[in-house]
Each structure stands twice: as structure tokens, then as C-alpha cells.
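Problem 3 from the worked examples.
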Amino acid sequence: MSALMQQLNETAAYIRSQVSGSAAIGIILGSGLGNLSKEIITEKEIPYQDIPHFPVSTVEGHKGKLILGSLGGKPVWVMAGRFHYYEGYTPAQVAYPVRVMHMLGVQTLLLSNAAGGVKTGMKVGDLMIINDHISFFTENPLLGRNEEALGTRFPDMSEPYSRDLINRMKQIAATHNIPLQEGVYTGVTGPTFETRAEYRLIHALGGDAVGMSTVQETIAAVHCGMKVFAMSVITDIGIREEENTITHEEVLQAARDAEPKLTLLFREMVQSL
């Protein structure tokens, strides 16, 4: 058994020892979006620092705990806070919690993030379904020896985000008259926000939003055979005329303002599964 599989088994065994239930749905909450955890009927909260081999969140807006509970009457694993390449973690460490969820039986993964809007006409506070991504600007988490126990050496990425889940979300949003954007998410390393020239390049390449997370988690999840759904809260507009700057505090506030809609949509998505 490889060192990675040994660590994954140890992590999963510890988590199982702390809980009495299980869940087939996993949720990872992004910047400023951690209050969805208040909607969860919690069975157990485990701080990341207590979990063997688990990274620890270092970014404001990420609470740093793994929650087992129920949302909309369905059992869920929830990561309140994620890990990023720019924190100094390797891509494999960023992907590690996704692989742990796989070991715990998760089959469907729901992701949220805060992102910069690139597509013309986007506004701060918009919600964008991610229907594809561009990952060339950040490092692939599958580099190195392939773990056959997790997935194939060359996973197909023609549908990284489940069309079925995307259609479900569109129906849910239409029921509540919540307008949604849809587009391609471009993953970058961060931690700097993009320059104007970089925003123009991303737009020219077909990116509709840009952020510093999600793509490595999605790649690891697809590798493990999970179905993935992801949504961005547009917290700033990258291509703009005015000379304003972007701060992390403003990103967090925009995410908090959009959170009630995101919480409703994710709760009903879980109920539909």
C-alpha cells in the first residue's frame, strides 16, 4: 500500500471513529459562504486540526471544520472551509479532503466559491453555475504516481460538472425566480487578484469567471468517480472601466450578501438527490 493510501485510510478511520452515521453527499463551502453550516442539523463537528493528515485552513472566511449532519432531510458531509494552492499546500494536499470524502462513501460533491466576473454583463452578487473549467494556470493534483485504488491514470474530463445536476439546479432556481448565470470557471494560483491584462486574456480564452480554487478539487473528484456540481458567487468584476481596486474584505462581504440565495439553492439541490 502506498503512503498516500495509508494516510487516507488512517484519516477515514479516525473520522469514522468520531461519528455514528455516514453520507453520500459532500459539500465544500468557499469564501464567506460558511453560514450554510447553520442550516445543518449537526451530528458531529470535527476541527481540521484534530484530523490526522488533514490540512488546516489559514484564510479569513474559512471556518476549518468537517461537519456530519443532515440538510434538507439528507445526510451530508460538509467542509466549512477549503484549502488553496496559494496557502503553500501542494495540489495533492488541496485535493486530499476530496479523496477522504470518497473513502467515506461520498458519491456527489457540491462546491461553492467566490469568483471574479469576466463575462460581459455580470454583476457583483450574481450566481454562476460552472459548466466547465480551464485549469491550465494551476497545477494538476494528479501529477505523479497514479493511485489505481482511486481512479484511472487518464481520467476523462469531457463532463467535469454533471449535466444532470446542472439541469436540476436550473429547475430549482426557476421555481424560486432566482436568476442564474452559467459559464466557464478559470482556475488560477492566486493569491494576487488578476491584472487587467490577465482578465482580458482569460476573457479571450473563453473564461467567464476566475478564482483561486475548485478546479483541483473537481479533478480529484472526477478521478474518484464522483458527480460534481459547482457554483460561483461573483464577488467582483474584473473587466471594468473605473479605477477601483479589489480587497478580500469586499469579496467576503459580497459573498455574504449572496449567501441566502446560495443556501436555499444548495439545500433544495440536496433534497432533490
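Problem 4, a separate protein:
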Amino acid sequence: MDNYEYSAESGCPRADIFISEKLDKTRSAVKRLIDGGNVKINGKPCKPSQEIFTGDRVEITVPEAETPSVKPENIPIEIIYEDGDLAVVNKPQGMTVHMGNGNTEGTLVNALLYKLDSLSGINGVIRPGIVHRIDKDTSGLLVVAKNDKAHLSLANQIAEKSCRRTYLALLEGNLKTDGGTVTTYIGRSPVDRVKMAVVPPDKGKLAVTDYKVIKRYEGFTLCRFDLHTGRTHQIRVHAKHLGHPVVGDTVYGLKKQKFKLEGQLLHAFRLSLIHPSTGKEMNFEAPLPQYFLQVLSKLKEI
């Protein structure tokens, strides 16, 4: 259990906004704290919409998180490679990588616990084996560690950028250039804490993405993205920053979609890494999923 106490240096129109900024939590998470009686202003329980005035004393208690168990589930997943150290999985669109935010079943971890004989324990019982993630509605490749030694090696490769990840995305509109590099800082959006955004250097972390046009269509561009860093929603935020959000991305792009999609057209199609035990370079590719190809087949090349 953690306790926090703040003296408001300036006013704030809502208590939930004030607390989310102090604790770096989403407003929905803050609302749960407030509804649970864990927040007091000047010694009295408050509401999320309550205004905070200069000098107010804000007391917050964050209860210890319960550690739920993760059960193996016989869920079909495509494992394109496996040995004693690692597995490479082609995650389908719509599957969450690990439990959280109310997701306790149907995740990739649930499926991995059923399919694989072992997973590294570095990330605990919630995220066993998970070295890196891709969004729920992004499809494609990710590597899973089957033991702690492999996990540390793979995590270091990602940090040192020797593990390379390449994505394909269909973007709204046509880019002016055929390629380039986007370098920004990404952090929580000051407007909506659920979203990420390009922010000043002191408010976020460095995010670097290379992009290259693969094919141009009337009103759309197929692009390749190579990650140099691994920030949350990095490609989606950078695509928006370019002025050409990913097709199907209703969070960072158009709310009204031309195609009937269940998520963004963003696919992790290539993964390169050094094997933790052999030291050999390994390269994997996963073809575009059928729903992505169906959209491309409807477009006219230019």
C-alpha cells in the first residue's frame, strides 16, 4: 500500500485530472481510487469532478494490487518457430498480449501457457515470457522467451537495437516524401491520459521511427516502418504526427472508417534477432493477414 500527500500549488478544475497528472495514471484508474474511498481532499472524501483550489491538501492511498493467477487456455495461435530458448509467434489482430485492464482470459499469455513447456519468469506471473508487446489490434510477430537467460539476452538486444522490428501499415492519404525518419518525444497525452502523444522532451521519452513508401494508391499509402525505439503506440502516434494516420485506427485516426475493420491495418511482418545461445542471426517474416490484403485489393494504384 502506497500513500501520497500533495498540497495543491495551483487550482485544477477536476480532482481526477489533478491526481492523474501526479500519479501518471489514467483518469479511469483514478476514478476507481476515488470511488473506493482512497482519495481525500482536506480530510474529506471527494468526487472525480470536484474542483481543487490552491492550498488544498490531497491525500491518496493506492492499495496493493492483487496478483491474479493466469490460467492456460487452449487457444489457437500460430507459432512459426520454437526451440529450447525462445518461440516466435504470429499474433492475430484482436488478441491482447497479457492480462490487464480487466482482461483475464483469452490473452496470448493464456495461450502460451497451454502451448509451451516453459516461459521465463522475469516479468512475473502476469507476463511470463513476454519480452516486448504489440497492440491488441496490431497483428504480427513477437518473440517469447522460454527461460530467464534468453529473456535477458533478448531484452538487451531490444534495448541495444540489435533486435530489429519492421512493420507494414496502410496510411490515410499520400505522403509527400518517399521516406524519412520521425524523431520526437512520446508521452501521455495531456488531454486524454489513455492516449499517447508527441510531447516536449521533459514530458516524454525519445521515439525514433524510419519510414519508407512501399506503394501508393488513390487516397492511401502502404508504408514500411522500422523501429529504433519501442514506445507505446509509437508507429500509430508517428503516423498521426506525419498527418497520415493508420487506416482503421479510430484512436489516433479517423473515427469514421471507409472499410469495415476491427482494428488498424498495422502488421509486424519482419523480426530479426540474435539467438541467445548460438549467437546466430535469425530472421522471420509473417505475410499480411487476409483482411489487410482484401483492403489492398480494393484500392487503385497510382
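Solution to problem 4. The longest helix spans residues 148-160. The chain has three domains: 2-62, 78-160, 167-267.
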